[in-house]
Structure formats: C-alpha cells, structure tokens
Sequence to fold (463 residues):
Amino acid sequence: MNNFRSWRQSFAVRGVSWRRGLDWAIENVPFYFHPFLVFFWTLFFFVFAGAARKAVVSNLSVILPNSSRAMNYFRALRVFRNFAWTLAEVTIYKLNKAPFSSELNGADVFDNLLAGKGAIILTAHMGSYDLGAALFAEQFHREMRMVRAPESDEGSAQHVDLALKQAGAGAVKVDYSTEGAALSFDLLNALRRGEIISIQGDRVVGDVASANVRLFEHNVALPNGPFVLALVAPTPIYPVFVVRSGYRDYQIIVREPIICAREEGTRDDHIARAMVKWSQILEALLSEHWDQWYAFIPMF
Amino acid sequence: MVRLYSDVLNMKNAFYFALPRLLNRIRGGTDKVSESNAAESYLGSIGIFIITFVFALQLFAERFSGWSVIAFDLVLVFAVWIFWLIVFYINSLIVKLLRACGLFRETPNRRAQDIFIAIVLAAMAYRLSILHGWLGWIGWLCLCALGANFLAAILLKLIPNTR
Fold:
C-alpha cells in the first residue's frame, strides 16, 4: 500500500517523475524540439500546479499593483514559461555539457568577491541559481557551498542533490537549511577558512530563523541567518542574481556588498539595518525581473 | 558589463542543420555543428509542429463539423505533443537496439533521433504533397527542405573544408 502511495506521489508536481522525464527528454530529444516541449510543459504545469499558480498571481498583484488580475494570469504563465526554460537549460548543462554564455553585471564588485577571504553570496529563487553556481565554479575555479531548502519529496531531494553535484562537477557542495545549529557552526568555520557560501534569502521555509522587513510596502519575513553569520564571521554579503536573458544566455547581476558591521546599537539593530538594505536590493531586482521570481508560495 | 564565454557566441553564429552549415561555409563561416542557435531551435519546433498538426487535421477533420471542429483542433494540439513523445520513446528503443548491433555507438541519442524524425516528417510531408491546394504546398515545401538538407549533408561529407 505504502509502495503504491509513494509511486503515485512520484507523479505529483513536487514528485520526482517529471524530473526524471526531463532528464530523459534532454538526453533523447534533439535541441530543435526543446521550444516545442517547453511550451507544452509550461501549459501542463500552469494547469496542474494550482497552488503555485495562485501564489505567483498573488505575489504579482503586490509587485505590479496596477496590473489587472486577468493580466497577472498571463504574467504568471510567463513566469512558468521562464521556469520551464530554466529547468530545461540547467539539465542541458548538466547532461550534455552544452556551452552557455553569460554577462557579468557588476564586474568590479565581483572581482572583490573573488579576491576576498570568505564571502556570503545572498541570492533569490530567481533565474537559474543552480546553473549560476555551476558556471561560477567552472569559470572561476572556486568551490562553493550552497545552502538551500530541501525538497519535500524524498525522491526529488535525492535527484536535485545529485543534479547539483553533476552540474557543479564536485565544486558545488550542497547543505540544507533544515540541518539546524550544527550547520550554522559548520558554515561559520567555512567562512573563517575563506570559503564562499551561497544562500537563498528571499523565502522562509520550515523553522528557519527569520525577521520581518518591508518589501513592496508589506511586512515580509525573510531569513536572518545569513546576516547573523555575516556579523559573527565577520564577512561581507554580496547580493548576486542569475537571470536568464535569452536562449542559453544568462546575466549574472552582482550588487555592492552589504556590510553587517558592529556599529551603534544592539546586535538586532545591526542585523535589521543589513536586512533593510537587502530588501531594497531585492525589491529593485524583483521590480525588473518579476517574470523570473520562482517563489511559488504567497509571500505577502 | 563583461561577457564571459565568448567562444559560445561564435557557436551561436554556427548551425546544426546541414543546409545552413553548407551555406555558412560558402560564405566563409564555420561549418561546425552547433546546438546553440536559437533561430534553428524555434524554427525547427514550429515547422515540425505545423507539419504534424496539418497532417492530422486533414486525416480527421472531415469527421467533425461546427463547434466540434474547434474542440477537435484544441485536442489535436495536445495530441501532437503526445504523439511526438511516443515517437521519441520508440526511437530511443530502436537506437538502443541498433547500439546492441554495433551501430550509433559514438552518436548521442538526441542526434541519432534525427534520422527517425526525418523519416516520420518525410512520410507526413509526402502524404500532404499529393493533396490539392495549400496543404499540398506545405507538403512540397517540407519535402524540398528535407531534400535540400539531405543533399547539403552529403556535400559537407564529400567536399572537405579546406580552410
């Protein structure tokens, strides 16, 4: 009975079956069929992933307050389409080792990131963070630790874990945000050794520590762990976003670092100030690239 | 703005299909195989979808009338997708079988599929080409494109690139 249930769940939106199907398609379907397949998968998920669709529409109504509800459904379709392309292209990179081009927006800041001894890359569920991490490791020959929320489905979690290892060719190590205090100490030691850690800072999943900030004139809970780490280590936080700008073409956007410094006030004040800066950067990026924000839960 | 991977940009000016590769060679460009050309990717998808859709439409459309035609067309759009997924699956099994016989061992699955896709498309295009009117023209256009591409592939093999 349990076997039947887990088999049935594997076909759910969060299940592993479609991920395996995507791998199969990328290995077996010529590239000139990809737009055709992506178009249909977009429609498929738009129809069947009802909760995610509603969440995207709800988030868009806050990001774009002048956009009508009907128009937001079309915009949500665009978000799903971009998500489908992003998933397809990271799989193409992983399995076919196809070349990708990318533009670096903020090269000076990026040089400082590479030259520095330890840094936190704070990013969002935007564009292709998985591909970004893999390109980073390949292009700059630097190892990276990526902290992410685990997939709710066990099969999917294993699949994503393996996919990240394959795409990053061993240079990207994955940690899960649910690992608790042990992970915090581990990450702190890694920062002090000069390693680069990438964390997604736009969504709170599970029992992850968080604090409220203003985002699009709404109170939103964002993870505060990266800021606590930055304060204790101490190390700068670099906001980095990887957005898709065309067919096998990505843009890496790097913003000025956020320094979480011990100045006047309490520890919470230092963290709050840094989080306000992060929310401002995030808001600016989301205003521009709302069609690539894959936070499939209601944020506001 | 700094561009990374400039060699990829060169590959975006290269092609996958033999006919544009041959034309590119004649123009002095590269004839290397590239899967990075967005135009080829989109045109390939649209072209194959149109041929399959029109082929299925002329097979079954006579059985429907009035509003049921619109419903049939909508179902057909998804049926085309399912049809190709099944074709790819069957092709992958054929490729596996051929590999066991020692063929296509060095060719990735996605490229080995080209031959089978061309055969399926040619069969559909031939059926369309013997019809009258615009359906016939679509069939002829597709057959000509497939034929020219096949010829170009032979020329690319026979005439070595001297540059």
